[in-house]
Amino acid sequence: MNDYGNKLSWAIGKKRVLCVGCSTIDCVTIVNNFPVDNVHEKAIGAYWQRGGNASNNCTVLRNLGVNVEFFGMLSSHHMFQVLIEDMRARRIIVDNCPICDQAPPFANVILTKSIKKRTLVTCNDDFPYVSIEDFRKLNLSIYGWIHLRAYYFDTTMEMLKEIAAYNATMEAKEDKIIVSLEFDQRLDEMFPMLDYCDYALFSKQLASENGWTSTENACSQVDERLQMRWGLNLRRPFVIIMWGDQGAGLLDLDGKFTHMPPYKPKQIVEVLGAEDSFVGAFIYAKFIRERSVKVSVDFANRISSYKITKNGFDHIASILLPPVF
Fold it and tell me: Among 192, 304, 171, which Cα is nearest to 237's?
């Protein structure tokens, strides 16, 4: 949580970034080999931490010096207070979040060192999601970028339409809110949301269910679906395919594909949160540093690779430090 160098100065004058989604309690267990039936596998480490896509995005952005707000349902449960206190200690804004009295969502995460993989088992027990009524209470004029996860279709679509309606009242481009969407499941159901975003980021998790074999193949299939849409004033977003150790694929507004190569990490310690780091780093490079989309994706590749060399997210800000000779 240290403030490294003058990284905070890059965000001066920029509007706030809003990340919409969930915050969870992650119970992490580290094993050498993945457990098999009837075999006792002793853990070599265990801990719990704050997790959730939007929550992690906020942590990454805050570590890079961005004025960022988390918008999701909070719990009054005593265990969840530690998560809220952690966000506030990091100066992640949570003031506009609704609160319920249900037990918070959690995830069991098994990190297997021998194969450098993670296994995630989630449980939200019907934990409520923020509603469109909650979203309408926000003052949209203070946000320059809003990032959402394509998960609860009806609610998220209503939020996107609210942003689109707000942007329609703004004449100057710099007054319009930039919208990014992250897709990681049920693509057929969520695909119509692409009509309302500027940047669409797709997780590698979608590969198996959609038959994607590479970043180029994924971009080609998404491009084909974009061309099959019909209607008036359809928006075409930049498409980014996050593919982990294979880098990322980028599809520009003209449908041109570019493969962005990965950066090889010096070591792999924790892969949990690598895609969340990619998303946060992309927003930082594009919105705060005003870099091109290609440069922003390249920076996101670099940050996600650097993230997995240590536990957590606090070390990533050191990548902005000048080298010491």
Answer: 192
Helix (H, G, I), strand (E, B) or coil at 102: coil
State both tokens at 25.
Answer: 């309690």
Could you give the angle at the alpha carbon of 102 between the alpha carbons of 97 and 105, nearest 5°?
80
The pLDDT of residue 4 is 40
Contact (Cβ atoms closer than 8 angstroms) between residue 217 and residue 198: no
pLDDT per position as a tens digit, 248-282: 999 999 999 999 999 999 888 888 899 999 999 99
Q: Where are the alpha helices (DSSP H) in 71-146?
A: 78-89, 132-136
CA angle, corner 228, sides to 180 and 173, nearest 5?
A: 35
Supply the angle between the helices 53-63 and 274-283 in degrees, to the nearest 10. Answer: 50
Q: Which residues contact 208 (CB under 8 A, 6 or more apart)?
A: none
CB 69 within 8 A of CB 96: yes
Helix axes 78-89, 53-63, angle to 10 degrees: 30
**Which residues, in sequence order, are CB contacts of 25 under 8 Å at separation 6+?**
48, 49, 50, 51, 79, 80, 83, 104, 105, 106, 107
Bridge partner residues of 145 (DSSP): 17, 178
